[in-house]
Protein: Lrp/AsnC family transcriptional regulator, leucine-responsive regulatory protein
Amino acid sequence: MTLDAIDKKLLTFLQQDCKQTNKELSSKLNLSVTAVYERIKKLEREGIIKQYVSVVNKEKIGLKFVVFCQIKLAQHTKEYLTKFESEVKKLEEVLECFHVSGEYDYLLKVIVGDMDQFRNFMVTKLTTIQHIGSTQSSFSISEVKNTTAINIR
Amino acid sequence: MTLDAIDKKLLTFLQQDCKQTNKELSSKLNLSVTAVYERIKKLEREGIIKQYVSVVNKEKIGLKFVVFCQIKLAQHTKEYLTKFESEVKKLEEVLECFHVSGEYDYLLKVIVGDMDQFRNFMVTKLTTIQHIGSTQSSFSISEVKNTTAINIR
DNA sequence: TGCTTTATAGAAAAATTTTCAGCAATGACT
DNA sequence: AGTCATTGCTGAAAATTTTTCTATAAAGCA
Structure:
């Protein structure tokens, strides 16, 4: 499927606020309500729109501490990688985990309430996973930019 | 505001799918439709729910390349930091930018279509920002976990 | 040309959100 | 203890939105 200019605008709007009514969208896009409706349904069917989510303000629920953990495995066997990945997926503190190139194997984004909780996370959860070689953590000092909205090019 | 068990469940559901109807939510939570409605409105008023967004499948729109860039500034004056941050915010390829502790000053999550576009991003956009000391990039080999949903504890 | 598909519009139907009135429980204050 | 205000809930009604349906025009194609 190829996106035309209207689809791109529509996706941009929906990435900002997916609760806008089709009427609002229709006037922004100079289309009828039904046309907007059909376009959105198509984007959903094609899997271009993956899901609709509420974004929660993490600070407001006491999660003020963002940490990036870089992790090196002891060995790079398929078994070790798979095991590590399945364990990390289960950790609620880990919002993102990427297998990456470079000196370290994995980059994790971890969210906790404070340093104490982070220590607890490291000691009782992360480093109890087998075959971890070494870790290196960077603490977020400030969030400069953090968006879910992709610029459709 | 303190969240009770129902609020926490509600937030969990809404972070998975914010387009569920209040009727669906009311039956999952054993509440009336109006009670669900009022709770959601309160969470919005309090700013606990920040926004409602559509999540776009980046692969489907040709953005298959995720890169993490670590950046060191030449000097750490307030002026340099502020300038860098305001420039980086403007770059559409940058979805996340955190000022972090450790060897590097900033960690960026960059999304592009391919290596060529990444080279172009580095050469014509990122490294043209003044006062950058050095950069170090890690490419994503695979996405193990990547969620917007926070576990409400 | 004639046929099929695709995108659109407007109206009607179905479903959902939002408002409203009423009720019970809670806590503050006299 | 009694009164009052607040909070959260329910069910019904009103308002709005989504979804379906019918029809039409434009585009692609044999």
Remarks:
- Residues 21-23, 33-34, 37, 41 of chain A lie near DNA strand D (CB under 10 Å from a C1').
